[in-house]
Design a protein that fits this description.
globular; 7-stranded mixed β-sheet; 11 strands; alpha/beta
């Protein structure tokens, strides 16, 4: 058993263990840790002795965590996240923007010129040059999981089914359209009657991270034998000419302009998705996180104001 207070040596051994797990073996971890595989093996053995349990299997069959090793790995992640939070909070009480900012955004948002996160990041890195910024591009369900597990501080995405341990705040909206590509029967359907005739036979590719029947009524009853966990996967399936599927308009625009993709029914099935900021419930954000939240909300507000002006002008 570990003593009540972890020593610096204990923390180092846990760090080595986490690095090995994430590298999926001793050999790959050598580069990150800058030590030999034999040294890593000895350190893992020392940790197992300290904890009194076997953490992993290693040998000809490769590296694999034991059940207890899985638990220790998850607990170590929480421990290091808590230590980071402590350091950032202490620095925050001094009014210093230092430490780390970890943010995840949905995988296609870089194509959206109105996405407030880019402007917020630019301003944040200007006023907080000492903060280490860690960006992730993930599917919505992976973002929620990472926030829950304290692997990231904030997530930005489309979240249709809210989880009780998280706080969601609306940043803005994104238009998504139902698309098909050249070669699909619907690509040349130029009248609503022809669309209605062909649609029931169209193979629909589902976004695996949400309930399509709930958020996209047109999909109810359509045949479907494919799904994707990220928007890029939906795009690949649509571009085969064998499927129809929902894509953000900003993401599909490049193929629309090339004439490879078109909106089914010229936009008659378009939807509007809420883009939300998500963070963990019950945890007070430190100064770094609070500052970024303020910046991204401000940027989102400016985009919303600009769109309202354009709508009135139109």
């Amino acid at each position: 058993m570990l003593p009540p207070a972890l020593s610096k040596a204990d923390l180092h051994l846990l760090y080595v263990f986490c690095t090995v797990v994430e590298a999926r073996g001793f050999s790959a971890a050598q580069i990150t840790l800058n030590v030999s595989a034999s040294t890593i093996s000895r350190q893992i053995a020392d940790l197992e002795t300290r904890l009194g349990m076997r953490l992993c299997q290693r040998g000809r069959k490769g590296f694999r965590l034991t059940d207890k090793g899985e638990i220790v790995y998850a607990a170590s992640h929480k421990l290091f996240a808590a230590l980071d939070q402590f350091g950032e909070t202490v620095d925050g009480t001094r009014g210093k923007l230092v430490g780390r900012l970890s943010v995840a955004a949905i995988d296609n948002w870089v194509f959206n010129n109105e996405a407030p996160i880019m402007g917020a990041l630019g301003e944040f890195t200007r006023i907080a040059p000492q903060v280490e910024v860690e960006m992730h591009s993930l599917a919505p369900d992976d973002i929620e999981m990472a926030v829950q597990d304290a692997q990231i501080a904030l997530g930005v995405g489309v979240f249709h089914k809210h989880k009780p341990g998280l706080i969601y705040e609306t940043l803005g909206f994104e238009r998504i359209g139902l698309y098909c590509s050249r070669g699909h029967p619907l690509f040349t359907a130029d009248t609503p009657e022809r669309v209605e005739e062909l649609l029931p036979q169209a193979n629909f590719c589902k976004r695996a991270y949400l309930n399509e029947d709930l958020v996209a009524p047109v999909s109810r009853g359509l045949p479907s034998n494919a799904s994707a966990h990220q928007i890029e996967g939906i795009a690949m399936l649509v571009l085969t000419g064998r499927y129809i599927g929902y894509l953000p308009e900003s993401f599909a625009d490049i193929w629309v302009r090339e004439g490879r993709v078109r909106s089914v029914g010229d936009g008659m099935f378009d939807l509007k998705s809420e883009i939300k900021l998500v963070r963990k419930r019950g945890e007070e954000p430190n100064l770094v996180v609070k500052t970024f939240i303020q910046l991204v909300k401000s940027a989102a507000g400016q985009v919303s104001k600009k769109n309202r002006k354009e709508c009135r002008g139109a």
